[in-house]
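Recap from last week: sequence in, structure out.
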Amino acid sequence: MTSTQAGRRPAIHLIDTEADRLTELALGAEDRFPEVSALLLDEVGRATVKTAGQIGPDVVRMQSTVSFIDEESGAERSVQLVYPGEADINAGRVSILTLIGAALIGLREGQSINWPDRSGKRRRLRIQSVSH
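Predicted structure tokens:
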């Protein structure tokens, strides 16, 4: 059993400038989206922060298009991770200030994470591919 199967979250990596902006966004959203804000702040806090040139092309960052699978349901999705003002669910652009957005940021292709959905049920999401 891997550490992620045992319930621990996988290592994640963030670009330094994005980590700063995500922290500001999460703090600004505490009143409107307390659960997402807390989860995003936790993710930023545990991330390994690097410069843009040190982040591999297989890591989910802002503006990435991410294909992932919900391992329980088998449902596959592909979304672009964006800042709140750019979000448009009909166009596949998902805000970082959503549960899915906060779950995906910083993961690498092949990694999985256990994450709550809107109903509070834990879902296991696995990254299939990342493009920029």
